[in-house]
Amino acid sequence: MHKTKYLPSGVETVGPATGCPLAMPGDATEDGAVTATDALYALNAAVGLAPCALDVCDASADGTLSAVYALRILQFAIGADVELL
What Cα–Cα distance (Å) separates residue 66 from each residue in 10, 46, 61? Predict the structure, then answer.
C-alpha cells in the first residue's frame, strides 16, 4: 500500500507503475487541496449519505470510514499537526 504524508501546502505524487496521479488523502472534492468541504464529504460518507473512495476519506488507512476521519481531515485543513495516510 502506498502511504504519503501530505502537507497543507499540497504535494503531487504519481504512482510508480502507472505514472498516474494518486488520490490525495483527504481531498474528497479532488481540487488539489484539503479543505473543510472535504471534511464534510468524509462525514457524509461515514454516515452513508455519500460515496467516498477509501484512499481519499480513510484518514488512517485502516480500510474503514468514520466521523473521526472527517475530524482529522478538518484538523488537517486548518493547519493542525495531523497526518493523513
Answer: 23, 5, 12
